[in-house]
Design brief:
Blueprint (H helix, E strand, L loop, with lengths): L1 E4 L3 E2 L3 E9 L6 E2 L7 E8 L2 E4 L13 E5 L3 E9 L2 E5 L1 H10 L3 H9 L7 E15 L6 H5 L7 E5 L10 E8 L2 E2 L4 E6 L8 E4 L5 E5 L4 E12 L8 E12 L1
Parallel strand pairs: 2-10, 10-18
Antiparallel strand pairs: 1-3, 3-4, 3-7, 5-6, 5-8, 8-10, 9-10, 11-12, 12-13, 12-16, 14-15, 14-17, 17-18
Length: 247
C-alpha cells in the first residue's frame, strides 16, 4: 500500500490530491477501505506537524484525498493504519516469508516445528510520501531525513526530489532502531509489474539505490515478529512504503 500525490512537486502552497493505492501491475487499485481504518494521517513540513485526518470523508478511500500544504518546502505525508488479521495456508505463508526476506520468522517456525501450520498474522500499514512545494531548498534535507516515529519506516538520507538526483541512500528503522537484513524493493510506478531493484539492509539498516530515470518511485519493506496472547495471530507484521518523484 502506498500514497501517491497527483504531483510530487507543486509550484505553490495549496491542496495536494492524494491517492491511496494497493497492488501492482494489472492488480493495482484504490485502497478502498473504511476511513476508520486510518489511525494517522498527518503532514510534516518546515513549520511542524499538521493533523490531516479532517481531509478524510466518511466511507471509503476510493477517491483522492485533498491534503492541504500551506508552506513552501518539502512535506512528508504520513499514514498509519489500524491492524487487521490474515490467515494463510502453510505453503503460501512459507513462500511469502521466503519471497519477502523474513528469515527470522522462517527460523522461528522451523525451530518450533510449526512450518506445516497456517500462518496467522496481525498486520498493519505505514506509508510516507514526499511532496515538494515551491523550489528546492537546503533546509528541506532536515525535514525529509528525520524519522517520523513509525514502527517501521524507510528514511531517505538524501533528497530524491532535488533536480538531477541519481542515487538514494536510505535507512530502515524498526521500533526505533536500525533494521539489518530487511529486503527493500524499488519499483517504478509508471511500470510497476515487478521491482527494478531489491537490496538487503546492512548492519546499520542502510541500503543505497540507483534512480535510473525521472519519474514516480515506490520503495517498500515489511517486517514481522512473533507475538503471544493474540487470539487470532502468531506474528505481528508491519508493511511500510515510501513514495517520491525524481527529476
Amino acid at each position: 500500500m502506498w500514497l501517491q500525490p497527483k504531483r510530487f512537486v507543486q509550484a505553490a502552497p495549496g491542496e495536494a490530491a492524494m491517492a491511496f493505492l494497493v497492488g501492482h501491475g494489472p492488480d493495482r487499485q484504490r485502497w478502498d477501505v473504511d476511513v476508520r481504518r486510518v489511525a494517522v494521517l498527518r503532514s510534516i513540513g518546515p513549520k511542524g506537524t499538521v493533523d490531516q485526518r479532517a481531509s478524510l470523508k466518511p466511507g471509503g478511500l476510493g477517491v483522492d484525498v485533498p491534503v492541504r500544504l500551506t508552506t513552501p518546502g518539502v512535506h512528508v505525508i504520513v499514514l498509519q493504519s489500524l491492524a487487521a488479521e490474515s490467515n494463510l495456508p502453510a505453503l503460501r505463508f512459507n513462500d511469502y516469508l521466503k519471497q519477502e526476506g523474513l528469515t527470522p520468522a522462517q527460523r522461528f517456525r522451523d525451530g518450533r516445528g510449526i512450518s506445516n501450520q497456517p500462518g496467522r498474522e496481525s498486520y498493519s500499514r505505514r506509508a510516507k510520501t514526499l511532496v515538494q512545494v515551491g523550489p528546492s531548498r537546503s533546509a528541506d534535507l532536515a525535514v525529509l531525513t528525520r524519522p517520523v516515529g513509525l514502527t517501521l519506516e524507510i528514511v531517505p538520507e538524501a533528497n530524491p526530489l532535488a533536480a538531477g538526483a541519481k542515487t538514494l541512500p536510505v535507512r530502515v528503522i524498526f521500533e526505533g532502531k536500525p533494521l539489518a537484513g530487511a529486503l527493500v524493493k524499488l519499483t517504478n510506478l509508471d511500470a510497476d509489474s515487478v521491482p527494478v531493484d531489491a537490496r538487503l539492509t546492512d548492519p546499520q539498516g542502510r541500503a543505497t539505490f540507483q534512480i535510473p530515470k525521472p519519474g514516480a518511485w515506490l520503495m517498500n519493506v515489511l517486517w514481522t515478529k512473533p507475538i503471544s496472547g493474540h487470539p487470532k495471530a502468531d506474528f505481528e507484521t508491519t508493511f511500510s512504503s515510501l513514495t517520491f518523484g525524481s527529476r
